[in-house]
Amino acid sequence: MNLKGKTALVTGSTSGIGLGIALVLAEAGADLLLNGFGDAQAAIDAVAASGGKVLHHPADMSDPQQIEAMIAYAEREFGAIDILVNNAGIQHVSPVEDFAPERWDAIIAINLSSAFHTTRLALPGMRQRNWGRIINIASAHGLAASAGKSAYVAAKHGLVGLSKSVALETATTGITCNAICPGWVLTPLVQAQIDARAAESGNSEEEKRKLLAEKQPSLEFVTPRQLGELALFLCSDAAAQVRGAAWNMDGGWLAQ
Ligand code: NAD
Description:
By secondary structure, the protein is of the alpha/beta class. It contains eight helices and seven strands. The protein has two domains: 7-183 and 223-248, Rossmann fold (3-Layer(aba) Sandwich); 185-221, no CATH class.
C-alpha cells in the first residue's frame, strides 16, 4: 500500500499504539500530524526517519476547542486529512461506586467524545475528495466488559457504536470508518496497571503473566506494530468494503 500524497492524523501518537501506527503509516509514505503529551520531539524524530513531512499538535483531546484548532492546523499545514486515527485514551480502574466522577468525565471526553469531534470536523474535507479512512482504536473492552473499568468499557462500546453510525452515513462514498479492538498491548497504559498490581504482590513479571492468563489465550502481548499493519490494511483499496467493522486483534481474548 502506497500512502504517498496522503496525510494521516493520529491522536495520542507520542507513545504506545498511536506511535506504532504512525510509524507504519509513515513507512508506507504518508505525511503525519502527531498529537499527544510527553516527548513530542522524540516521536517526531522517530516518525520523520521514514522520510515524509511530520508535525505535532499539542491539543488536549478532552477540549473541543483545542481539537478544532488542531483540525484547522492540519488542513492549513497539509491541505487535507485523508486518514484519521482516533487513538488517544486513558484508563482508570475502580469499582463503580467509588469511581471519581471527574475520572469518568475525563475518560468519556478523551476516549469517546474526542473521536466525535475529530470525525465531524474532518469529514467535510474527506467528502470533498471522496476518499477517507477513519480508524477508531477501541479495545476488546469495546465488545466485552471487565470489572473495575466501567468508564473505559462504556467509552469503548460507545466508540464501536460511533464507528458503525459513521460507516452507515458514509456507506456510498470512498470514506470508510472502522474500529480496531486490541487485547493487551504492553504500553505505558498497561504498565501502570501492572505496576498497581505489583505494588501489592511485589512481583511485576508475575503480574504480567497473570494479566495475560486472565484474558489473552495466546499469553503474548499484541504489538503496536501489528496494530499499525492492521490500520495500514484498512487504508488499502482491498479494505474499501470493510465498513463499520469492530476488528479484534487480541490473542484470542474475544473467542472465549
Ligand atoms: P499510552 O498511554 O502509551 O498512549 C496514550 C497516548 O494518548 C499518549 O500519546 C498520550 O500522550 C495521549 N493522550 C492521553 N491523554 C490525552 C489527551 N487528553 N489529549 C491528547 N493526547 C492524550 O496508551 P496506549 O496503550 O498506547 O493506548 C492507546 C489507545 O489504545 C487508547 O485509546 C487505549 O484505550 C487503546 N487500547 C490500549 C490497549 C493496551 O493494552 N495498551 C488495549 C486496547 C486498547
